[in-house]
Design a protein that fits this description.
The chain is an alpha+beta fold and about 575 residues long. The chain has 19 helices and 24 strands. The chain is globular.
Length: about 575
């Protein structure tokens, strides 16, 4: 039971703070003292006090009845309620005792600008909030700085260093002198009528108070909130897609520098250079909600205008390549036209001097290791493609590791087989002298050429890499095991004919940019028979933690997703198919 709660808390916390490009940790929510008053009843959204031009906001529904919908599934506890652990609190606070009494029905984490992130909570009981405020003040060794701004009082607490036993003896606030091993960050808070606001600085709260208009009155936000999914959602997201990403790129260096002066900074990127559709992007919206068969999520980018057919047709896929995969797979993802995405990515990388240098170094490394680089491999991958992992007893991994019956594969279609053959010949010419000819076998299957790299021991293949053609324009590459004969001719029964795959993709439109699919039943069988014994050995037998992990993950039937472009939206959808809770008589 504890594992189930922890598992979902972790997943939920990640989903709440994820913005495309990076994850933002919400600031800790503390409270300011306020006059004691009666219960506060509010139905107005947090958007009412956020700026009209807010760059992005994640809205979290805190109502227990909404979260209890997840109790119908075996993955979650039967008495599941709003997971308080995902709500940011100060160190040592109890959500149930200190926060829940005053917390209203909604929490919002808003990105106002590159320098300002605020957390806003609705308040149902101002008196309970005042008690929490007093607790927070006592937990700090330094009095806060009071700032009056636009009729609101902002309390700003400076960061505090760790406290040890010696410092406890000299503090003037005994109630704040518990041993603390971590630095307490800077904090600013303000209480507004019916709302509580916090941030890492007073300047962020000032920016919110100085803004004009209300997000609730923004027509683009209204479109999001009026979506039928909004009323059902546990979590909802709204934002200006491109502007939010640019702001996050500016925020990253400053935030990471606070962790350590030597923290390596991730590269920033311009969406206009890396995405062929970015010129059409407007606002983004997202929803997470429960359905009778599982947990659904949808993230969409609204478009300023419809995508021209000349841009859409090269990336839309018919998903026909999936008919060439065997019926049982652990994981599959497919799409269309890697060449187009590669060209767009390269333009973006080469526009940045630092990235261009790294790209050149990566190419040199690839040439030294395998004799080819991205310029040899990707330009001809202009058709459908699939990346997959499937069970097999053939090849290097199954032959050398007990029960490690798995192979990775890439299948790709091309309209330029000559270019693909050139790349393969270049690779063969580089690898063969280094392996030796006895470790390279060539032949044909159904009239199409193939090449294996590895050995044969007692009649059993020990191939670690193979490539071959399954028809005139479809190339198959297998890594770590497997046999090309399992794919050519076509499998007698393929992936698209299986009930599990059909149910996994049922929520998604048929016309799309590709699927992502995990057959959880097959994957858990592999975990139980191969991975767990390999890492835990006999210690897994009778281990209650391992049993809980197996029970929880085993209640997931499949994990799937799809991306689509329809009308005025680019959508990314996800579906967690879950086993229902068994009702005991």
């Amino acid at each position: 039971m504890l594992l189930k709660r922890s598992l979902f808390t972790t997943l939920a916390a990640l989903s709440l703070v994820t913005v495309p490009g990076m994850s933002i940790a919400p600031p800790k929510v503390l409270a300011q003292s306020a006059p004691v008053s009666s219960q506060v009843t509010r139905s107005t959204s947090i958007a009412s006090i956020l700026p009209a031009e807010t760059l992005g906001v994640v809205l979290i529904n805190t109502q227990n009845d909404r979260w209890k919908e997840l109790s119908q599934f075996n993955l979650f506890p039967g008495d599941f309620a709003f997971p308080g652990a995902i709500y940011p609190t100060e160190q040592g606070a109890s959500f149930a005792k200190d926060v829940q009494p005053w917390l209203g029905d909604q929490v919002g984490i808003a990105l106002l600008s590159a320098k300002s992130i605020v957390t806003v909570s609705s308040v149902k009981d101002q008196a309970a909030l005042s008690l929490y405020a007093d607790r927070i003040k006592k937990s700090r060794t330094k009095a806060p700085k009071e700032i009056q701004h636009k009729g609101a009082t902002i309390l700003e607490f400076e960061p505090e260093k760790p406290i040890g036993e010696d410092s406890e003896k000299i503090t003037k606030k005994p109630e704040a002198s518990k041993t603390r091993f971590f630095r307490v960050p800077k904090l600013a808070i303000a209480v507004l009528p019916g709302y509580f606001v916090s941030s890492s600085s007073a300047e962020a709260i000032k920016e919110m108070l100085d803004s004009q208009g209300s997000l609730a009155e923004n027509p683009k936000f209204q479109r999001t909130i009026q979506n039928p999914k909004a009323a059902r959602s546990l979590v909802m997201l709204y934002g200006k897609y491109v502007e939010a990403i640019k702001a996050i790129n500016q925020t990253q260096p400053a935030e990471l520098s606070k962790l350590s002066p030597n923290t390596p900074l991730p590269p920033t990127f311009d969406p206009n250079l890396l995405d062929p559709l970015s010129q059409f992007y407007d606002t983004a919206e997202g929803y997470v909600w429960a359905e009778p068969t599982g947990l659904r999520a949808q993230f969409a980018v609204n478009l300023k205008q419809a995508v021209p057919e000349k841009l859409l047709s090269p990336i839309a896929t018919r998903n026909q390549i999936l008919e060439r995969l065997p019926e049982v797979n652990y994981m599959v993802t497919n799409s269309q036209n890697l060449a187009l995405y590669w060209r767009t990515l390269i333009v973006g990388l080469e526009s940045q001097p630092a990235w261009k240098k790294n790209l050149e170094q990566a190419r040199q490394w690839m040439q030294s290791i395998v004799g080819v680089d991205d310029r040899d491999i990707l330009p001809w991958m202009n058709g459908e493609y699939a990346v997959f992992a499937y069970p097999t007893t053939k090849g290097f991994l199954p032959a050398t590791t007990p029960n490690m019956n798995v192979a990775m594969g890439v299948m790709v279609q091309t309209s330029d087989r000559a270019a693909a053959e050139t790349a393969l010949s270049k690779f063969n010419a580089f690898i063969t002298p280094r392996l030796g000819k006895p470790l390279v076998q060539r032949g044909t299957i159904a009239g199409q050429p193939f090449t294996n790299y590895g050995a044969v021991n007692n009649g059993r293949s020990l191939n670690f890499f193979s490539h071959g053609w399954t028809d005139q324009n479809t190339l198959l590459m297998l890594f770590g095991g497997g046999s090309l004969s399992e794919f050519n001719p076509k499998p007698t029964r393929n992936l698209t004919q299986t009930a599990n795959f059909k149910s996994a993709i049922e929520p998604f439109p048929n016309a799309n940019l590709g699927y992502f699919y995990v057959n959880q039943g097959a994957f858990m069988a592999f975990v139980n028979t191969a991975l767990l014994p390999a890492f835990l050995g006999r210690s897994m037998q009778g281990n209650p933690f391992v049993t809980q992990v197996q029970d929880s993950l085993g209640s997931i039937r499949s994990i799937s997703g799809a991306s689509t472009i329809s009308g005025d939206q680019v959508q990314f959808e996800g579906f967690l198919a879950l086993a229902p809770r068994v009702k005991r008589q």
